[in-house]
Amino acid sequence: MKNLEIYIHIPFCVRKCEYCDFLSFPADDDAKLRYVKGLMAEMIFYGPLMKNYQVSSVYIGGGTPSSIDEQWIAALMEGVFDCFNVLPDAEISIECNPGTLSREKLLAYRDAGINRLSIGLQSANNDELKLLGRIHTFEQFVTNYEVARNVGFKNINVDLMYGLPGQSASQYMATVNKIIRLHPDHISAYSLIVEKGTPFYEKYKFDMVRQEAGMRTEFLPNEDELYDMEKAGQKAFMDAGYRQYETSNYAKRGMECRHNIGYWTRADYLGLGIGAASLISNVRYTNTSDMDEYLSRCRHIHDVGDDIFKANLHVSADVIDKKGQMEEFMFLGLRMNEGVTREAFERAFGISIDAIYKDTIDSLKKQELLVVKAGHIYLSERGKDVANYVMAQFLKD
């Protein structure tokens, strides 16, 4: 049986953060319940179509999944187990935000089969949290984290963000050191990206341009300060026993996020919910992002037979040709510290990696941006600093 990953999108949140451009919004309980029923209809439809797959991971993301009633999360998990062939050791994650968690919710998650939490902290500085538009304090996070440990969660990720307006390297490192002392199993550390359509974009768009140009900034850390934050955090995490296994992710040994590794290695995945994407047999599907349209389509999803191409939830279904598959294999695989292997490339495409990318690999190796060793091809330390440039070299015209 082939492995399948499942992503379940919960778009609801208490309040949208100032920097957030994800598909998320507040809603009342009636809207949330109707949406959960739509997700269940999707599962019932896809279950028979995915009967030749075994589910290796489930990821409930958002939005803020912990903002909805825990019994609805439990019902969704029951639907997953009823409709799909879930492996006994599957990694099952849920994203949570402090301020929306309780002991009752955590117990319900545990009892529903969820075995991994991803808690969105972002900062241990309450002034920074307020600036970001977060609804919680660091103290609330610590309380939630300790309760999660007490009820038995042994796999917890904490999300951090650096490069915030007005943030210094010492302020970021204060957050890093406070989190390290809590010993989470996994840490994701991302640089703030000021996205169009967000309140942050209106406030900081000119500063963002200055930052990207290497110029002096007014609010955001400049390019050198951003680099110093990244490297200082990286060193602190690694000194504390975390292994950097991907550009922004650190884990204790054996606690790497299996679901995300699946994305970076181009595993098949099924996305459920509005705006969710799927990759099945090298076809990328995207669900509608309109809530009313999604719920309407869910009501009629069973009228389209057993052909996934006809599932009327999709607003697009793009076949990825072999060239596109190879490009994705390289630029996604190079996100990971272990990089890609010659063996895996040849197994996937029936041709050697040198037949396609020898000149590119040789050039990047000569520039000391790639390391080629024991069948592995991965970014050098210098290459990590210009990762976007390196990955772009594998996009063939």
Automatic annotation (TrEMBL):
SMART domains from the UniProt entry: Elp3 (SM00729)
InterPro entries referenced in this protein's UniProt entry, alphabetically: Aldolase_TIM (IPR013785), Coproporphyrinogen-III_oxidase (IPR034505), Elp3/MiaA/NifB-like_rSAM (IPR006638), HemN_C (IPR010723), HemW-like (IPR004559), rSAM (IPR007197), rSAM_sf (IPR058240)
Domain Radical SAM core per the UniProt entry, residue ranges: 1-230
Keywords from the named record: 4Fe-4S, Chaperone, Cytoplasm, Heme, Iron, Iron-sulfur, Metal-binding, S-adenosyl-L-methionine
Cell compartment(s), UniProt: Cytoplasm
Main location: cytoplasm
Annotated GO CC locations: cytoplasm
GO molecular function annotations of the record: 4 iron, 4 sulfur cluster binding; coproporphyrinogen oxidase activity; metal ion binding
Positions of transmembrane segments: none
Family: Belongs to the anaerobic coproporphyrinogen-III oxidase family. HemW subfamily.
Protein name (database record): Heme chaperone HemW
Organism of origin: Agathobacter rectalis CAG:36
